[in-house]
Amino acid sequence: MNVFEQAQDRIRVDSAPKLSEETFAMLRDFIYSKTGIFFHEKKKYLLEGRLGKRLQVLKIVQFEEYLHLLKYGQQKECEFELLCNMVTINETFFFRNDAQIDAFQQKFAEEVIEAKKVYNHRTLRIWSAACSSGEEPYSLAMLYLEHLKPRYPDLHIEIVGSDINTAVLDMAQKAEYNQYSIRSTPKLYLNKYFDQFNGVYRLRQEVKELVRFEYINLIDREKMRHMMHFDFIFCANVLIYFDEKAKIQVVGDLFNSLNRGGYLFIGFSEMLHRISTAFRLVSIPKTTAYKKE
């Protein structure tokens, strides 16, 4: 890098919008009120960096002006959608939580299906909440095709994937993935359910048609009231971004979304201690699940 380029970089850094402590607090509170996601003071740099790029695109000089746009602008709904896309973290890949997936396939799915047969219920409903670009719900769809459908040919399955980030939902709908996403995928599934072309792994239609995707904000109680009658909910690595109040609300709504006898799976680093006593904790090798009785 020559002297001129170094000078240009310094100018860009110096001219980047600065987020004051006061405006950070207001912006953080706005995001929290809309999503339940709480940014600690230590994460101020993250908002400043990610949203600063958006301000430059909009040719806005100050974060105060951007906050006003979010609250009162004519395109505030669209801008809020873009905001969510910028600040949410989407780290996932196929068969990521292998202990949970094994427990679902080897133990809990059979338990729930057999219980349904008593009442002649033949539909298994699964919700992958905060599914990012779709790897989790598609993993569950492949498990169904490979293990459950042969054993229960009359079983109908409904899988819903949801997220607050519209960009990753678009990726999920497209169902085309790179090497990073498939790195933990067993060869059996890779060969049977993907088509590969120039380093792109495209899911086959028989998998795609088992999953539908929706935009769902987990803190939106009106929307959550429509998410009902699920047998399994996978909601991993989401609660860590909420404070206790938001966790209590979201977990309560997830409890209401489950059928009796259904299971909630959350992240390995998450727990419902002090959040909810409504579930029964079920311990299995390498993981846990929460059952609605």
Task: Supply the CATH superfamily name of the largest domain.
Answer: Vaccinia Virus protein VP39
First and last CA, distance: 64 Å
Uncertain runs: 2-13
Give the name of the CATH architecture of the largest domain.
3-Layer(aba) Sandwich
Percent of residues in beta strands: 15-25%
Strand order of the largest sheet: 6-2-1-7-8-10-9
Word description of this protein:
The structure is a single chain. With 293 residues, the protein is an alpha/beta fold. The chain has 2 domains: 3-87, Orthogonal Bundle (Chemotaxis Receptor Methyltransferase Cher, domain 1), CATH 1.10.155.10; 98-291, Vaccinia Virus protein VP39 (Rossmann fold). It is built from 12 helices and 10 strands. The protein has helices at residues 3-15, 21-35, 44-58, 63-72, 76-87, 98-118, 135-151, 166-174, 187-193, 205-208, 221-224, 244-257; strands at 123-128, 156-163, 176-177, 194-197, 200-203, 211-215, 230-235, 258-266, 280-284, 287-291. Strands 6-2-1-7-8-10-9 form a 7-stranded mixed β-sheet. The model is unreliable at 2-13 (pLDDT under 50).
